[in-house]
Amino acid sequence: MIQISLAPRTISGFKRVHGGLVAPNEVPEANGIILFLASGEIAAMGALERLDVMLNDALYGILFRDINPQRTLIDQYFSRIINGYAGVIINTGEDNYLTTADAVEAAHTVLASDLINEQLALLAGLPEEQMGLGHAFEMDPMLENGFLLELAQAQMTREIFPKATLKYMPPTKFMTGNIFRGHIQDALFNIIGIWTHQGIQLLGMPTEAIHTPFMSDRYLSIENARYIFNDMRSIGEEMEFREGGICRERAKTVLNNAIDLLQQIVQEGLFTALEKGIFGDVKRPKDGGKGLAGVVTKGDNYFNPFVKMMKERW
User: Going from the N-terminus, what domains does the chain have, and what CATH number goes with each?
Assistant: First the structure.
């Protein structure tokens, strides 16, 4: 996996200060990458082993592992408190939505979920710099101007979350086994990654959809990324987005749709939204899935001193 970290150029003029939208900042550097699915116990083990990055998504376990929604949100809250205290970067799995839903039509659900994950992380005391909010390059390569739409969404995500160590995922859904076209798809993905200054970039493999990548496949992917990241290092500082152009209009559309969806969720509630299959076209009932038997109401004498201590560490 390759990480890139540079200052972005604006597409919509957004940045954030104390939850508001302002101008973009530089993304902090990070070290090596290791990934795990997080619960409180695994978060503690990762903290003890000084893990760099841990998969920790408030919604992924609900949607793609059929873990009960109530249980998941409780577990993720406490595990994020541990991750925040230990300095572990979390990453979220919104990219998976685009493997089960259309990447063009469902793009706003990715942004809405990123915003939900951000707020849940802040409630757990996790700094923005430790949020690897997820998104992906998953549009049909036969789509006209698909590159521009992908570029717009990646730049929009960087501007809305200027401090976050964004996690950008490579194409998988439309990798057919044609290694030559697949290598080009990965190259376009890498161009957007360096252009929009993503934080954690997982490299695509030319043999995706054929077999588990060989070391030689991985080498080609790293070579591809290094070439593009070096040759196009400063393209984000040189290029601007035309007012009224495809990129700006796409970013506005996705953002507006995400706002509308969040307003709908405010009215209906998150559990109802999950039951309707709003995210990833996957429906999960509030009382369904695994683990609900382990959820209990706190008693009057419940006391946990560690939550307060870890959240107020600074």
Answer: 16-294 (3.20.20.440)
